[in-house]
Structures are given as structure tokens and as C-alpha cells.
Write a structure and sequence with these properties.
By secondary structure, the chain is of the alpha/beta class. The chain has a single domain, classed as Rossmann fold (3-Layer(aba) Sandwich), CATH 3.40.50.20. The chain is built from 6 helices and 5 strands; from the N terminus they run βαβαβαβαβαα. It is globular.
């Protein structure tokens, strides 16, 4: 692996979901701490704040679409990144199923948390199957996982 960061040069990061809430703060904070840091950003949309803040940008399929993992692995190789840092829970879930594909390519963060990334599905299935013993004082709404990020 030809990686400039490994030889003491500029560290290279692939940051996914650069259009999600908090992307601007994360990118500017990383750049403020380490101005020499190289950040390649990805998102399913070209109209994201990260498109303009990252050193390079690539549009990729949605995390749940076919070809998403392939696109991230290919970009990690092409950009010669040291770290792949997913920002959204759906990206973490999909990438956690493909951790082995990043061996020898890049470190996938947060790898430890990603191994247990199925918590959201487990939590939702427990809540949707639960029967309340008494009528709640106010309505309880449980959104399915497929609605992640959409509040309408």
C-alpha cells in the first residue's frame, strides 16, 4: 500500500456522509487541529456542504443501495487513505458487514462500535413488538429504520 501518511507525510481520511448534520463542524474541527490533514468526502448527493469543504469529493450510492460498499472500497484504494470514517448509522451498518474488505486497504473506524451496529434494528423490533400494560398518558411513535434521517 503506497500511503503518504505511513511515511510521516499527510494523513489521508475518507469521510462518508459529508452532507449529514454535523459534517461541517467535524470537517472544520479536523482541519483546525491538523491543517495538513487530507479529507476525501463522499455523499449520495452532490449538493452537500462537505463537497466544498473536503479536499476531494465523490458522489456514491445510498448506503443501503447495491454498489455502496464497492464504491467506498474503490475510493479508499484510489485516494490511498489510511482511515475510512463513516458518519451515519446506515453507513456504519453496511460497512460493518464488509469489514474484511478493508484489510490491507484502510482502517475502518470505529471498527469496535461497528461490530455491534445492528442495535438500531434490534431496538426497533423490540419496541414494535412490545405490548403496553396500561394505556400511555401520551402517544408513542416508533419510526421504522427505513425512515432514518427523515422527519416528515
Amino acid at each position: 500500500m503506497n500511503n503518504p501518511g505511513a511515511a510521516g507525510g499527510t494523513m489521508r481520511i475518507l469521510l462518508t456522509g459529508v452532507g449529514c448534520p454535523g459534517a461541517h463542524a467535524l470537517i472544520t474541527s479536523l482541519k483546525r487541529q491538523s491543517p495538513e490533514l487530507w479529507i476525501g468526502g463522499t455523499d449520495a448527493s452532490r449538493q452537500t456542504i462537505g463537497h466544498w469543504l473536503c479536499d476531494d469529493f465523490a458522489q456514491v450510492p445510498w448506503a443501503h443501495d447495491e454498489g455502496y460498499v464497492d464504491a467506498i472500497v474503490e475510493l479508499a484504494q484510489r485516494w490511498e487513505v489510511e482511515v475510512v470514517f463513516p458518519q451515519t448509522s446506515w453507513e456504519m451498518f453496511e460497512l460493518s458487514k464488509a469489514v474484511d474488505r478493508f484489510v490491507g486497504v484502510a482502517t475502518l473506524l470505529p471498527a469496535a462500535a461497528m461490530r455491534g451496529c445492528d442495535w438500531r434494528r434490534q431496538q426497533t423490533s423490540m419496541l414494535t413488538g412490545a405490548k403496553p400494560r396500561s394505556r400511555p398518558s401520551r402517544a408513542l411513535t416508533v419510526l421504522p429504520c427505513s425512515r432514518k434521517g427523515r422527519r416528515t
